[in-house]
Specification:
Helix 8 runs antiparallel to helix 18, helix 12 packs across helix 20 and helix 20 packs antiparallel against helix 21. The longest helix has about 40 residues. About 50% of the residues lie in helices and about 15% in strands. It has 22 helices and 23 strands. It is α+β, with helices and mostly antiparallel strands. The strands form four sheets. Strands 10, 11, 12, 13, 14, 15, 16, 17, 18, 19, 22 and 23 form a twelve-stranded mixed sheet that branches. About 0% of the residues have low confidence.
Length: about 750
């Protein structure tokens, strides 16, 4: 309860219980989910691969056949391994002699027994698994579970049975936990025919909102084209009447007009496909830019190149829009009467119904554009709110450096001394103000969670909650800009002395109310040695940008001979990326066998947590601007056409004493009437649509009318600009020339 849902929470005993006692699945399979495994062997350089442990029935139930050799099956020993086709190709050049070859995975010797087929990449959509292994003899891995439904069994029946069987897991977890919320855990059963996808969970709703925006933009474009075609048809009315008088069938005229409409639609479709082919890469880069902090796999493979499905969908849409929005001009051609049209030669003006329809198209464009601009303003304001949230630390000028000492050969004591030496050298780099260690770093996820008993403040069992635990080195709070409110910071001299800890305000408020926590003691469950609270710091978000800050305990990084953190944090006086090269060289000089696994800035890490919001704000802003431009073109086109048709009228008005200002006011008045009507409709639609958007985007600010006012004011300005040139042209009509033309 209160936490995001996710896969990978089941144990092997739970899997076996479900497998043996369910009546709804013909088979149930388990996979550990992707993890990085170090693979080495004779003639192979050590490398990190995406690997999974799977149940023995994994490949048979999925219906996967081997490319060569055989796949893991029931009863396979833990020393077997199956490679992916892509890894076999890239690393072994499709050499069939790899069957029977021995390699070492995480210090476990295994034998390659087969290669998966080329088209099978694993369960995780968009991410490739390189190696599959059978379940090890003893493991605490968490599993994803997938079942194949028996014929005739519905999803509702599967959910009902799994809810009952899930009690086994609840009891299993409750035995090893004092968290009262464990018994409130719930299981979800969903279709998985398209695989597992964290990308879908992260981006499905934002992309659905974008599809609605794209639909509005398409409507604006279509109404624009329809208005222009209608104006063109009106200008060609005499031509059409002449064709009918000379014997042309009216269906032939309809065919001609629809053909012209379809040609425009087809040309736009080809251009759109061309842009989509090259522009999809930018969308992919936005999607995966935050993979480290939004829980996505590290190696993501996505192709958004238009394929046959996209081609057919786009072609169908082009045909549909071409026909629908070409019908009005076609009907106008069909309704042309030769005699009346021939009589109107030399007359100015047009029918009231035609004027009303043309103005209605402009009103629709203005209304849709107002909705688009309001949506863009709402999404941009939401993004701005997230970017300017007070997270409890300063995000500017902080460089994050990750290292991996797990296979470096360092003992804990040597690593502790090397880390302290490295911190001293890092602070000596020009441009570096301070350096420290932190695990985790802000907004990178959990460090650890534990129950604790605070001296003098007993809790009821039902009120107990996990406390977040982080490990930091001296100067960490100074480096991250987290204020020290009371007490002292850690020092290197704390190592070997009585245990100390620092707590945040959320913990102090809960346990000590307004009292002073300094000098108080607490004990972690399962640990007899108490900690003394030596300091109090401000609240800072470590898990999620929108969350309420959790009760947090900070422990010294260099404590009891252990070094927990693998993340160095540096505050700089210059651009953090400007010292990245010096930092790499310094780490290499001090920690010769410890690789640097990543360098980024704290600002980039925070930005990566709001990728969906940045995606929708960026694209909706572009679509809003484009929709406004189309509406302006439509309004300008209608007014320019109207001015041309009313040239004689304006000439007579000027001849009878009207001033040029009167004519400008008349044209601008017509434009403002259409704009106000469109904005009224658009504002009402925006009010209705914001609730739909709020259902898709978490914490979207829909309570105020600033975004709608932004759309309305922007469209009024755009309408005035679009109407100014035709109004000026109307005011510049020479009465004598207009009457001579008549």
């Amino acid at each position: 309860p209160g936490e995001p849902r996710g896969n990978g929470f089941f144990t092997w005993p739970s899997y076996e219980h479900y497998r043996d006692h369910n009546h709804v699945f013909s088979a149930l399979i388990a996979a550990s989910g992707q993890a990085h495994y170090i693979v080495r062997g004779e003639g192979l350089e050590p490398e990190s691969l995406n690997g999974e442990y799977v149940s023995g029935n994994f490949f048979p139930v999925l219906g996967v056949k081997p490319a060569i050799g055989r796949l893991i099956g029931p009863g396979d020993a833990a020393d077997s391994a199956v490679l992916s086709w892509s890894y076999w190709k890239n690393r072994f050049n499709l050499d069939p002699a790899i069957l029977g070859k021995r390699i070492v995975v995480q210090d476990l010797p295994v034998t390659i027994v087969g290669v998966a087929p080329r088209e099978f990449f694993g369960l995780q959509v968009g991410s490739r698994t390189d190696i599959w292994l059978p379940r090890p003899a003893s493991t605490d891995l968490r599993l994803n579970l997938l079942g194949r439904l028996k014929p005739g069994v519905s999803m509702e029946q599967a959910r009902a049975e799994m809810t009952v069987l899930y009690r086994f897991t609840i009891e299993e977890r409750a035995r090893g936990s004092k968290d009262p919320l464990v018994r409130q855990l719930k299981i979800e059963v969903e279709p998985a025919g398209t695989g597992l996808s964290k990308l879908r969970d992260q981006f499905a709703k934002p992309l659905l909102a974008l599809m609605a925006v794209v639909g509005l933009l398409l409507l604006i474009a279509c109404t624009n084209v329809a208005g222009l075609l209608l104006a063109r048809a009106a200008a060609r009315q005499k031509e059409m009447a002449m064709r009918v008088a000379l014997g042309a069938g009216r269906l032939r005229l309809v065919s001609q007009v629809l053909t012209e409409s379809l040609l425009i639609s087809g040309a736009g479709t080809l251009l759109g496909l061309f842009l989509a082919y090259f522009g999809a890469g930018a969308l992919v880069r936005i999607l995966i830019s935050g993979r480290r902090t939004i829980g996505l796999p590290q190696h993501i493979e996505i192709s958004l190149r238009p394929d046959a499905h996209v081609l057919f969908f786009t072609a169908g849409l082009a045909l549909l829009t071409g026909v629908l929005f070409g019908l009005a001009p076609a009907w106008n051609a069909l309704a042309s009467a030769p005699a009346s049209s021939m009589r109107e030669m030399g007359k100015a003006g047009e029918t009231r119904s035609r004027r009303f329809f043309g103005k209605s198209l402009v009103v629709a464009q203005v209304a849709l554009s107002a909705v688009l601009l309001s949506a863009a303003g709402m999404f941009l304001r939401h993004l701005s709110n997230l970017e300017h949230l007070d997270l409890g630390f300063r995000r500017d000028h902080v460089l994050l450096v990750n290292v991996d000492p797990s296979r470096s050969g360092y003992t804990a004591e040597r690593l502790s001394g090397a880390y302290q030496e490295l911190l001293r050298r890092l602070e000596g780099i020009p441009g570096v103000r301070s350096a420290s260690l932190s695990a985790p770093t802000p907004l990178s996820g959990a460090g650890a969670s534990r129950f604790a008993t605070v001296e003098g403040h007993p809790e009821k069992p039902e009120d107990r909650r996990y406390l977040s635990v982080s490990w930091v080195a001296p100067k960490c709070f100074e480096t991250l800009g987290i204020p020290l409110l009371a007490g002292r910071d850690f020092t290197f001299q704390d190592q070997g002395r009585p245990r100390v800890a620092i707590v945040n305000q959320a913990m102090a408020r809960y346990f000590f109310a307004d009292g002073n926590p300094i000098g108080r003691h607490f004990t972690f469950d399962g640990d007899d040695k108490p900690y003394e609270i030596a300091g109090l710091v401000g609240d800072a978000n470590y898990y999620e940008i929108r969350e309420t800050t959790r009760r947090t305990i900070y422990l010294p990084a260099f404590q009891d001979g252990r070094v927990i953190p693998q993340h160095f944090v540096l505050r700089t006086n210059i651009d953090p990326e400007g010292v990245a090269g010096d930092v790499r060289r310094t780490v290499r000089a001090v920690l010769k066998t410890v690789p640097v696994t990543g360098i980024t800035t704290l600002s980039d890490q925070i930005d990566a947590t709001i990728v969906p919001e940045r995606l929708i704000a960026t694209l909706s802003g572009c679509f809003g601007a484009l929709g406004s431009l189309l509406a302006a073109i439509g309004l300008y086109g209608l007014l320019a056409y109207t001015v041309a048709r009313r040239t004689t009228e304006f000439g007579i008005r000027l001849a009878l004493g009207a001033t040029r200002r009167n004519v400008i006011r008349m044209v601008l008045g017509d434009a403002m009437i259409m704009t106000v009507v469109g904005l009224t409709i658009g504002a009402l639609a925006a009010f209705w649509g914001r609730n739909f958007a709020a259902s898709l985007i978490q914490d979207l600010p829909v309570s105020n009318v600033v975004s709608i006012a932004f759309g309305v004011i922007t469209m009024i300005g755009i309408a005035l600009l679009a109407a100014f040139l035709p109004a000026r042209r109307a005011a510049g009509v020479d009465p004598m020339e207009a009457l001579r033309h008549e």
